[in-house]
Write a structure and sequence with these properties.
mainly alpha; single chain; 430 residues
C-alpha cells in the first residue's frame, strides 16, 4: 500500500465481497496489485510537472494533459488483463466497471487546472522579472540622461554666475574710474584734447554692459535648450509611468490571487467529481500534494512582486516621491543657484553706479571756481556733455539692468523648473 491507497482498499474489499473461487480471486487480485503500483507511479510522476520552476517551460498544462491522457487507456488495459475465459459474470462486471471508473479517474485528473495555474504563476513571475529589468534600465537611462543635462546646466550656470561676478567687479572699477575723471575736471588746466579720455571710459563702460546683456541672453538660450532636453526626459519618464499603470491593470497580485483561488477550487472540484469514494479520497490526497507546490510558486512570485514594488514605488507608480523629484529636477540645486545669482547683487551695483553718476554730474560741474576752468568746462559740456550724459544715463540707468533681470528670472531656473514640476506631476494621474 502507498499513499494513494483509498481506491486500492476499496477495489480489493469489493473483490473480496464477491466470494469468487480462489483461483479467480487470486488471479484478479494479482493483476490489481500490479495496476495499483502503476496507478501510484502515475500520480507521483505528475507532481514534477507542477514542481518545474523553469519559466522557459511555458506549457506544463499540455504535458499534464498528455500525462493523464496516456494513463487513462493504460489503466483500462491493465485492469482488463485480469479477464479470463469462463470467469463468472460477477467477476466480469467487476473488471469492466472498474476499468471504466479508473479510466474516468485519470481523465478527470487530467482536466484539473493545476498545471494551468502553475503556468500562469510563472508567466506572471517572468513578466514581472522582465518588467523590473526593463524599468531598472529605463530609470538608469533617464537618470544618466538627466545627469548629463544637469551637468550642462551647471556648466552654463557657473559660467553665467562668473560673468555676473566679473561684470559686477568691472562695473565697480569703471564707476570709480569715471568718478575720478569727472572730479578731475575741476583741476584740468589744459584744453579740449582731454575729452576723448572720458569718451573712451563711457564707450568701454557701454561695451561692458552691452556685452553683459548679449552674453546673458546667450546663456539664457543655452539654458532654455537644456530645459527642452529636460522636458524630453520628463516626457519619457511620464510615458513610462503611463505604461506601468497599464501594465499593473492587467497583471498584479490581486488578479493572480483571484486566478489562483479559482483554479485551486477547480482542481479540488475535479477530484471531488470522481465516481467512487476511494477515488475521491485519493484525489483529495493528490490535491493535498499539489496545493503546497502551487502555493510555493505563488509565494516566489509574491516575493518578486514585493521587490518590484519596493524598487519602483513612488517612482513609476503611486505618488511621486521627493527623492524622485529631486533626482529628475534637482529643485534645490536650482534654488541654490538662483540664490547665488541674486547674491551677486548686480542690479544693485548698476543702480548704485547710476546714482553716483547722477550725483557726480550734478555736483562736479559746478565745483570750478577759476574762470578759466569754468570756461573750459562750459566748452566741454557744450561740445560733448549733453550727448555723453544721455549715453551715461542709458548705461547707468535701469533699462539694461531690467532687461538682464528679465532674462535671468523670467526665462531661466525658477519659472522653467515650476513648469517641469507641473509636467512631472501630471504623471500622478496615470
Amino acid at each position: 500500500a502507498g499513499n494513494y491507497d483509498g481506491r486500492r482498499y476499496e477495489m480489493l474489499s469489493t473483490l473480496e465481497s464477491l466470494k469468487l473461487e480462489p483461483r479467480w480471486q487470486e488471479s484478479i487480485q494479482s493483476k490489481l496489485v500490479a495496476y495499483f503500483d502503476y496507478r501510484e507511479q502515475v500520480l507521483y510522476d505528475a507532481l514534477p510537472i507542477i514542481q518545474n520552476d523553469s519559466t522557459s517551460d511555458r506549457d506544463q498544462a499540455a504535458k499534464w494533459r498528455d500525462h493523464f491522457s496516456k494513463a487513462a487507456p493504460e489503466a483500462s488495459k491493465l485492469i482488463y488483463e485480469a479477464l479470463q475465459n469462463a470467469m463468472p459474470s460477477s467477476a466480469l462486471n467487476f473488471i469492466t466497471s472498474n476499468a471504466n471508473f479508473e479510466a474516468d479517474f485519470f481523465s478527470k485528473l487530467g482536466n484539473m487546472p493545476a498545471a494551468k495555474l502553475r503556468d500562469r504563476i510563472l508567466v506572471y513571475r517572468e513578466t514581472f522579472d522582465k518588467e523590473s529589468r526593463s524599468l531598472s534600465d529605463k530609470w538608469r537611462e533617464v537618470d544618466s540622461l538627466d545627469q548629463s543635462i544637469d551637468s550642462m546646466g551647471r556648466s552654463a550656470q557657473n559660467e553665467l554666475r562668473e560673468l555676473y561676478q566679473q561684470t559686477s567687479r568691472d562695473v565697480a572699477a569703471s564707476s570709480i574710474s569715471t568718478e575720478k575723471w569727472i572730479r578731475s575736471l575741476t583741476e584740468i588746466v589744459s584744453t579740449l584734447p582731454v575729452t576723448p579720455s572720458f569718451v573712451g571710459i563711457i564707450i568701454e563702460f557701454m561695451k561692458l554692459l552691452e556685452a553683459l546683456e548679449t552674453r546673458t541672453e546667450s546663456y539664457a538660450a543655452r539654458l532654455r535648450d537644456i530645459y527642452s532636453n529636460e522636458e524630453r526626459v520628463i516626457l519619457v519618464f511620464n510615458n513610462t509611468r503611463k505604461d506601468v499603470s497599464s501594465f499593473l491593470k492587467t497583471m498584479n497580485l490581486s488578479l493572480l490571487q483571484n486566478e489562483m483561488n479559482e483554479m485551486l477550487i477547480g482542481t479540488d472540484q475535479a477530484g471531488r467529481s470522481t465516481v467512487t469514494s476511494g477515488q475521491q479520497a485519493d484525489a483529495a490526497k493528490f490535491y493535498g500534494s499539489l496545493s503546497p507546490i502551487l502555493k510555493a510558486h505563488y509565494e516566489r512570485f509574491e516575493d518578486a512582486f514585493e521587490d518590484f514594488v519596493s524598487e519602483f514605488d513612488h517612482i513609476f507608480f503611486n505618488a511621486l516621491g521627493d527623492k524622485t523629484i529631486e533626482t529628475l529636477l534637482e529643485p534645490q540645486s536650482w534654488r541654490d543657484w538662483s540664490d547665488n545669482v541674486r547674491g551677486i547683487a548686480l542690479e544693485s551695483a548698476l543702480k548704485q553706479v547710476q546714482e553716483q553718476s547722477a550725483r557726480n554730474f550734478g555736483v562736479d560741474l559746478n565745483l570750478a571756481s577759476d574762470p578759466a576752468q569754468r570756461e573750459l568746462i562750459q566748452k566741454w559740456v557744450a561740445y560733448n556733455m549733453d550727448g555723453l550724459k544721455e549715453k551715461v544715463g542709458k548705461v547707468y540707468g535701469l533699462s539694461i539692468s531690467d532687461r538682464i533681470q528679465m532674462v535671468i528670472y523670467s526665462s531661466l531656473p525658477s519659472s522653467l523648473r515650476a513648469k517641469l514640476l507641473e509636467r512631472l506631476k501630471e504623471s500622478e494621474s496615470y
